[in-house]
Specification:
The protein is of the alpha+beta class. It is built from three helices and six strands.
Length: about 140
């Protein structure tokens, strides 16, 4: 099964914490995620849900292989020669942040409950970060 989520890939970030006051004025520690990350997760879930077959039932008790390709837009600082390489179909790998494990964690959490019942079912993961003209996340799920 192949799913494509349009847009610049986002990595899962650690929860942020702040001190808040309850109704009685007592301090407590509150955790939260950035709004941008939550919105991205909601939109991605919506995109994925609409690409699944109507009668699709999430995988359960089956080992899975997850192949993820994160495609980022070319940098504005690139030379004309480097842009030409990309135009000619050459694969240019992204070697800067965000790192693969945080990108994978975000997608694995989004797929949880939609494509599989638990992300522990993923036994093999292949993750690539590359540059391309259409930013997106390509997800390929295979049963083992």
């Amino acid at each position: 099964m192949k799913i494509v989520v349009e847009g610049i890939p986002m990595a899962k970030q650690s929860a942020r914490f702040r001190i808040a006051k309850n109704k009685t004025g007592k301090d407590f520690i509150m955790s939260y995620q950035k709004k941008e990350l939550k919105d991205n997760e909601t939109n991605s879930r919506f995109d994925i849900k609409h690409q699944l077959p109507k009668d699709f039932v999430p995988y359960a008790n089956i080992p899975l292989q997850l192949e993820l390709t994160f495609v980022y837009p070319p940098l504005k600082s690139w030379t004309k020669a480097k842009m030409k390489q990309l135009e000619n179909g050459e694969v240019i790998y992204k070697t800067t942040k965000p790192d693969n494990d945080n990108l994978q964690k975000n997608i694995a959490d989004i797929l949880n409950g939609l494509v599989y019942t638990d992300d522990a079912l993923v036994s093999i993961s292949v993750v690539k970060k590359i540059y391309g003209f259409t930013p997106r996340t390509e997800i390929v799920i295979k049963t083992l």
